[in-house]
Design a protein that fits this description.
The protein is an alpha/beta fold. It contains 11 helices and 10 strands. Helix 3 links the parallel strand 3 and strand 4. It binds pyridoxal-5'-phosphate (PLP).
Length: about 325
């Protein structure tokens, strides 16, 4: 039992006012790019929620559970490391809750991300390079120097990250009339794959879980980890996936153009790469319903979109 006096009831009440804006994303049927008898592909449109990406789900759950445990109270600063989407989702929620926020991001993060985060009043600290491992180290040092001042969300080790995706799985089961046979997505913090996968397996152990990774350490798929060369998040369990498929950055970039021209959606490199993986998987099947996630749309990726337009349109 949590002593009720430890909970900041103002923060909790404010969380309630945004609760209905998190999750419940539409399931988009891929109808033109991939056509095969008895095999269907769907992607959840995850940018359609408060915070603008799939990371709204874990950001909301991490903050809510911290308030419920009494770990996060008014006057404290929310602290984490993120290459973008989690930071942006936290920033929306922190603004709605009037919470201060400090975020460590790689200095190589896109100008658009930095601009969005600044608009929400986030105190930005830059770590070297393009990857988030340096940002995590820096966030840990900031926290250790002043632990009473911060709630350190630590999305890479926080079980409230993957647990948020139980709801993602519930939505998939409901939206496919419990017909989903395969789920595939990338691994970043690995929260999406772990949480959605665990709940789907608990519902039906025959549902196949396929994790997706970049085919190379020097990839350009924002939010994706190449596990052989990356720091493995502590929430990751390598026994969950039934299989792994690899996606090339160029295939994903071409897919951005295909999705916009043929399906009518302008999505991020990560979303397009998930569809490349879903199609590779679907091509091996005689029957099935494959579900993946469109993590975010293209709004924060103008440089990539310019490259894609120059090369494929
Ligand atoms: C665009 C994008 N794709 C994929 C992911 C990976 O999701 P997860 O952290 O749940 O593994 C992220 C995570 O930040 C992301 O921002």
């Amino acid at each position: 039992m949590i002593p009720i006096g430890h909970i900041d009831s103002d923060l909790l009440r404010n969380m309630e006012t945004i609760k209905h804006l998190v999750g419940n994303t539409p399931l988009f049927p891929i109808k033109r790019i991939f056509k095969k008898k008895n095999v269907k592909i769907f992607a959840k449109m995850e940018w359609r929620q408060f915070g603008g990406s799939i990371k709204s789900r874990p950001a909301f759950n991490i903050i809510k559970q911290a308030i419920l445990r009494g770990d996060l109270k008014k006057g404290m600063t929310l602290l984490d490391a993120s290459s973008g989407n989690t930071g942006i989702a936290y920033a929306h929620i922190a603004a709605a809750l009037k919470l201060k926020m400090k975020l460590v991001i790689p200095e190589g993060a896109t100008v658009e991300r930095k601009r969005i985060l600044k608009m929400f009043g986030v105190d930005l600290v830059y770590s070297e390079g393009k990857r988030t491992s340096g940002s995590q180290d820096a966030a840990r040092i900031i926290y250790a120097e002043n632990p009473d001042q911060y709630f350190y969300a630590d999305q890479y080790s926080n079980n409230d990250n993957w647990y948020a995706h139980y709801l993602t799985a519930e939505e998939i089961l409901q939206q496919t009339n419990q017909g989903v046979t395969h789920f595939c997505c990338s691994l970043g913090t690995t929260g999406t794959f772990m949480g959605t996968g665990r709940r789907l397996k608990a519902f039906n152990p025959d549902i196949q879980l396929v994790s997706l990774q970049p085919d190379h350490s020097e990839h350009n798929l924002e939010g994706w980890k190449h596990l052989a060369t990356a720091k493995i998040p502590s929430i990751y369990d390598d026994s969950l996936a039934d299989d792994t498929l690899f996606v090339n950055t160029e295939e994903a970039y071409k897919m951005i153009a295909d999705i916009s021209l043929h399906e009518g959606l302008l999505v991020s490199p990560s979303s397009a790469a998930n569809l490349v993986g879903a199609i590779k998987l679907a091509e091996t099947l005689d029957n099935g319903i494959v579900v993946t996630v469109f993590t975010d749309n293209a709004a924060k990726y103008s440089q990539v979109i310019d490259e894609v337009a120059a090369q494929y349109l």
